[in-house]
Write a structure and sequence with these properties.
Helix content: 25-40%
Number of helices: 29
Oligomer: single chain
Strand order of the largest sheet: 1-2-3-4-5-6-8-7
Length: 909
């Protein structure tokens, strides 16, 4: 690629073979390159493309594609190595009254580049551009024998229809995004992503650039680890001052290597990183791992641009390195002191220090690693990439992440939801102490803390989020060695009553239950335990229990249908410790697997967690504290419950008008280019477009209009109304005394309006009148657009105390039916909705619809920075929003699911 300038609309994306292409709008200066691509097509390809072989058609196409932009036309190019390898274009068709906007499309791929996914990738980006332009469908003409292009349309994932007319086929592609399309995009992205990572994680050849002649350098340590780890491919060092380093042949530059390595590990000084990376790209290297830290902005930009230009995947900079224990590679390209054990845990971290700590703890525990990646500053390869790699890797059965930031949280969440269906995904919820939204104006923004936002992502995606590295290791130990619990019910067994009580308390504190045992299993326990044993729950076996009796007890409980997990708490006694009757032997010599997880607490154990070696291949994790065991069991149980439930889907909504809502927003932002708080009329108009239920309302700008409005709103003179003052920027009316309630009759309305006008003067631009609502449960619902995570829907207890009590839950939009149910049941006030103490349940379906409609509105309107409905009154006969506040900002839509590699701005910020 000769031109490295980034232009608006320029992105890079992966093809099916893992190579990278640049996708951008066509420019006038691209004419010769586009013409060359067409002229190099075979006569048969020309015939299929233009329905005839005529050189003039290639020139006309190049002229059209590269002409200065005009309304109703868009052309996108795919470029690889500076050459145009694909073109996709649309032309808006004449619009008949009342018909949706449609466009005619054309597609061409360079000779010899078919089958790499170029056409499909271009179409995905053209679909995105068309949706932004308000186009609802594509039409295309093709020869019936043009099987390649017909297959591209059929496999795209969008609803497509065909009409055959002799030798021609007329195709119609409907652009509505649905789950089927997103799943097809996911599948193509996963294939491309995994292919692009093979040179990184399963390289056939590796070079280490910056391996010093003297011991102690980072590069030399990485070279030593690659060599001593038994790497199966060719290994070289790059150092202009040595012939051999660590027994490895050294060469003065990347260009001087006897072959082009798949992977180069860079440990050169920061000023040299971009130059060496450029040598790698020119040579055709597939991937880089940059260990070097301390790159300034210019050096970082140069490294990033080089990798994008040459299609190299990049880990780092400022990282510990990578490792993969597969037999076909046996790669340890890290400078960690000890190599990872081979195993089934995939590990990705941003912090090198955290990576070292995890590898050491996993090593001591005996948990092996399938692949390890220290992401460092995460310019390119991310946690999302690693999840897709592990999903395709049959060796990986457990995914462990420590991420400090998310480049594309909604894409990450979608991937994690899919991966977590097949294997546990664990993380540490880092950054919980970050302060909330300090400048928050509405209840919604004040409630949407970073902790709540990350928690929503983890909950919806089925990610097991722990609070520390220690908890992460404890939970990993349980999931690595034991089956998932079917529920929250734990049977606690102890040879000391007090220790059993401590364990039971720890379980309850963690959200587990310790229910009393049914008479059946309790009676069976009495038959196998020593006299004096207590067979409630906790089960006190007494200190006299033998190994055989303890084994029988554990086996009986683990097999019973009312027990989801067994926690065995043991203290050393002088009666049996160290003998053949030691009850600890019951956990190290079990003849068979238990159907539910079994964990132990050994109160005299010095290490936090270890495995008790058993006769089968399912060791029992033993913890030194009951709290550690309970904190491992609880998230495992919640994850099992999440996985057992069917995936949710986004329900269709009737009666919505997104185009009308977009027009309301556009008109407001035309009047207020910097954004702001729309007045109650615009707020009501937006909610009406999504059929969010509101009380009837009226607007008044003087006391006579207010009296007339009140008379119109209520059925008779005794009906009561509320009068709410308004001026731009007013949010918390109660705090300022800007509303009057329970007004009856014209005189009270007139007096209230006059009083508000006297109090606030010319600042008050008018008043909003509504009939007084009947009593119900006062709730709060809202949306805040997070700059990184996208729209977040909040729900909980409402009224004037909403911020004081902070009884809120949150989920990321778009909400599925499962998300909505979870959102309704998460707040502490949830029992009020379902009929508390004999009361009647509120209109739950109405609440679900309200939340779904808010979710859809937030997804459709990225300009909707905040939405605050407080209170929402819920009664058995309906749900209605009493007060609405919205804030609009000039923002553009960002499609989180469009296939593209990270842009420079995503790591700069």
């Amino acid at each position: 690629m000769t031109d490295t300038t980034y232009r608006p609309g320029t992105v890079h994306a992966l093809l099916a073979d893992g190579s990278t292409v640049e996708i951008r709008p066509a420019l006038p200066r691209d004419r010769d390159a586009v013409l060359r691509m067409h002229r190099e097509m075979s006569p048969e390809a020309m015939r299929l493309r233009f329905f005839a072989v005529n050189p003039r058609y290639a020139q006309e196409a190049a002229d059209r594609i590269c002409a200065p932009g005009h309304r109703g036309y868009r052309a996108l190019l795919a470029l690889a190595g500076g050459r145009v390898v694909g073109v996709a274009e649309y032309t808006v068709l004449p619009l008949a009254p009342g018909e949706p906007v449609s466009a005619d499309i054309a597609l061409a791929v360079a000779e010899g580049r078919h089958g790499q996914g170029i056409g499909t990738l271009l179409l995905e980006h053209l679909v995105h551009a068309a949706r932004e332009a308000g186009i609802s469908g594509f039409t295309a003409e093709a020869l019936a024998e043009n099987h390649q292009v017909l297959k591209v349309f059929a496999d795209l994932g969008l609803r497509t229809s065909r009409h055959f007319d002799g030798t021609d086929v007329h195709c119609i592609v409907h652009l509505e995004e649905d789950e089927h399309y997103l799943a097809a995009v996911d599948r193509r992205g996963r294939i491309a992503d995994v292919a692009s990572l093979r040179p990184l994680l399963l390289p056939r050849s590796v070079a280490v650039a910056g391996a010093g002649r003297r011991p102690g350098s980072v590069g030399r340590a990485a070279l030593r680890n690659v060599r001593s780890g038994g790497f199966t491919g060719a290994l070289y060092a790059v150092n202009p001052h040595a012939r051999v380093i660590e027994g490895t042949p050294a060469f003065p530059s990347v260009a001087a290597l006897p072959l082009v390595p798949d992977l180069v590990v860079l440990a050169v000084p920061a000023p040299a990183v971009a130059d060496v990376a450029g040598q790698c790209g020119t040579a055709g290297v597939g991937a880089l791992v940059v260990l070097t830290a301390g790159l300034d902005t210019g050096q970082a930009e140069a490294l990033f641009t080089c990798c994008r230009r040459h299609g190299m995947r990049l880990v780092g900079p400022n990282c510990l390195g990578i490792a993969d224990t597969a037999d076909e590679a046996r790669l340890n390209a890290t400078f960690a002191a000890h190599p990872p054990l081979p195993g089934c845990a995939g590990v990705a971290v941003q912090s090198g220090g955290v990576g070292i700590a995890l590898l050491e703890r996993f090593g001591r525990l005996g948990v092996g690693v399938s692949s390890f990646v220290s992401l460092g500053d995460k310019y390119d390869v991310s946690g999302n990439d690693m999840l897709q790699w592990w999903e395709a890797d049959t060796r990986t059965r457990l995914a462990v992440l420590h991420l400090e930031s998310f480049g594309n949280p909604r894409a990450f969440s979608r991937t994690a939801r899919r991966v977590a269906r097949t294997m546990p995904v664990l993380t540490v919820d880092a950054g919980r102490s970050e302060a909330g939204r300090r400048a928050a104006a509405s209840h919604t923004a004040a409630a949407a803390t970073p902790t709540m936002t990350r928690g929503a992502l983890f909950t919806q995606a089925g990610i097991i989020a722990t609070r520390s590295i220690a908890e992460l290791v404890d939970t990993t130990a349980l999931l690595h060695a034991q089956p998932l619990p079917a529920g929250l019910r734990v049977a606690v067994v102890s040879n000391a009553g007090g220790a059993g009580v401590l364990a039971a308390d720890a379980c309850v504190d963690a959200g587990l239950t310790v229910p009393a045992l049914d008479p059946g299993p309790a009676g069976e326990l009495r038959a196998v335990l020593p006299p004096g044993a207590a067979t409630g729950n906790p089960v006190d076996t007494t200190a006299a229990v033998s190994a055989d009796r303890m084994r029988s007890c554990v086996d009986l409980l683990a097999a019973h249908a009312t027990v989801d997990a067994v926690l065995v708490v043991l203290v050393p006694t002088a009666l049996a410790t160290g003998t053949r009757d030691d009850p600890l032997l019951a956990l190290t010599g079990s003849p068979g697997r238990h159907p539910c997880p079994v964990a132990a607490v050994l109160l005299d154990q010095e290490v936090p967690v270890r495995f008790l070696v058993s006769g089968d291949d399912r060791p029992v994790p033993a913890y030194s504290e009951p709290q550690s065991a309970a904190r491992a069991l609880a998230p495992a149980a919640r994850y099992a419950r999440w996985r057992a439930e069917p995936p949710g889907s986004v329900p269709p909504l009737s009666g919505i008008d997104p185009a009308g809502a977009t027009a309301v927003v556009a008109e407001f932002l035309t009047r207020h280019p910097d954004g702001g708080w729309p007045d109650p009329r615009d707020c009501a108009a937006l909610l009406d477009r999504y059929r969010v239920p509101q009380l009837p309302w009226a607007w008044a700008e003087d006391e006579d209009t207010a009296v007339a409005a009140a008379r119109h709103l209520v059925a008779d003179e005794r009906g009561r109304v509320a009068v709410k003052a308004y001026w731009p920027g007013l949010v918390h009316k109660s705090d300022l005394g800007a509303l009057r309630l329970d007004l009856e009759g014209p005189d009270q309305v007139r007096h209230a309006y006059r009083d508000l006008r006297a109090r606030f003067g010319d600042r008050m631009t008018g008043a909003f009148l509504q009939p007084m609502a009947r009593r119900g449960v006062e709730l709060f619902a809202g949306v805040v657009q997070d700059e990184v995570f996208g729209p977040l829907v909040l729900f909980g207890l409402g009224g004037t105390a909403t911020e004081l009590l902070a009884d809120h839950a949150a989920r990321l939009a778009p909400l599925t039916d499962r998300d909505v149910h979870s959102l309704l049941t998460a707040p502490r006030c949830a029992p009020l909705l379902f009929g508390y103490r004999g009361g009647e349940a509120v209109d739950l379906e109405g609440l679900e619809q309200l939340l779904l409609r808010l979710s859809r509105m937030a997804c459709d309107l990225p300009q909707l920075a905040e939405t605050d409905l407080n209170p929402v009154v819920a009664r058995p006969d309906g749900v209605v929003a009493l007060d609405v506040r919205l804030r609009l900002l000039p923002r553009h839509a960002h499609d989180p699911y469009l296939r593209r590699l990270r842009a420079a701005r995503q790591w700069r910020t």
